[in-house]
Amino acid sequence: MFSFFTSVNAQKILFVGNSLTYSNNLPDILEDIANKSGIEIKTKSLCFANYAIADHLNEGKLHKTLSKKKYDYVVVQQGPSSQLEGKKMLIDDGRILKKVCDKYNTKLVYFMVWTSKKWYHTLDLVIENHKIAAKQNNALLFPVGKVWKEYNKHKNVEYLYSLDGFHPSKAGSFLAALTMFHRLYPKENLHLLKFPDYKKWIKNEDSFKLIIKLIEDN
Which of 203, 197, 170 is nearest to 160 (CA)? Predict the structure, then answer.
């Protein structure tokens, strides 16, 4: 089995993506989860509507940000990328971004997303394409889309989608942030998290427990 993470002690993380990341301010949720576990994570976001990796590379803010401050990780996210064109962008533009990260001595991490409800049948391709891109570019991977898929196999659980059927609900952003936290700190026992501390993002305790179980299983 391909291992994406070994021993990791993250402190400063730069999120590079679009509205799937900035919805519900996912980086803040990650910071809060870490803080409640006695861990300090500081995040910065370069996330703009409809941006792909290429847009960030061409726009210039990414390079300026990395030149001014040291980050442990650059977490990159674009659209689902299930089709051939998206897969190519994920790999080829990711390869360019990896060289930028290497220049500034930071690690590249792919944020594996999910599909819209309309295109849910392509989620397996999203999962596979992100795995391929991460492996080919010697990058790390947050397998959020995989956990998302496993969660949706269960009935009577809190909804991960917002009303538009694509962007995450607060529960969906919580699932994503907790998946990231577990990959960064795999030795932290998620079962020690207390449900009342996270009710502003997830309302159902059974759903909260299910998310923890699935993240640890994946």
Answer: 170
Q: Rounded to whole angstroms, how far apart are CA atoms 206 and 210?
A: 6
21-66 pLDDT, tens digit each: 999 999 999 999 999 999 999 999 999 999 999 999 999 999 999 9
User: Which option is the CATH number for 12-145+180-191: 1.20.1090.10, 1.20.1630.10, 3.60.10.10, 3.40.50.1110?
Assistant: 3.40.50.1110
- Could you tell me how far CA 19 lies from the centroid of its own chain? 12
Q: Which of 203, 175, 172, 169 is nearest to 190 (CA)?
A: 175
Per-residue pLDDT, 10: 53
| Contacting residues for 1 by C-beta, under 8 A, at least 6 apart | none
- 72: DSSP letter: S
Beta pairing, strands 12-17 & 73-76: parallel
| Cα–Cα distance, 78 to 81 (Å, whole number) | 8
How far is the CA of 179 from the CAs of 48, 129, 143, 148, 187, in angstroms?
22, 19, 7, 10, 13
| Beta-carbon count within 10 A of 218 CB | 14
Q: What is the pLDDT of residues 89-100, one digit of tens each?
A: 999 999 999 999
pTM of the model: 0.94
